[in-house]
Design goal:
Number of strands: 0
Number of domains: 1
Oligomer: single chain
Shape: globular
Radius of gyration: 13 Å
């Protein structure tokens, strides 16, 4: 059940930041920039995408945004999501 709560929260977030015609849109580099505020050692966008390609993982934004956020414990993930909403609304 907890996993479904997380999936719903992610889908809501992605719907919000996937609106290409608004300032709320998050490209891969913009998203990873927020991630790096919480994890300084996280690969930058180019490093991360090269690694996903090398490992033959899906490179669609929705998939890798989910994968990245899923790596964090719930409390940190919630702070990251809050920060994404803050930046999207600036």
């Amino acid at each position: 059940m907890e996993n479904l709560k997380w999936v719903r929260k992610f889908n809501e977030l992605f719907e919000y930041i996937n609106q290409e015609d608004t300032s709320t849109y998050f490209s891969g580099p913009r998203f990873i920039g927020i991630i790096r505020e919480f994890d300084l050692e996280h690969p930058d966008y180019n490093q991360y995408m090269e690694d996903r390609k090398r490992r033959k993982l899906n490179t669609s934004r929705k998939n890798y945004f989910f994968d990245i956020l899923s790596m964090f414990q719930e409390d940190i993930r919630d702070k990251i999501i809050q920060r994404i909403y803050e930046v999207a609304n600036e």
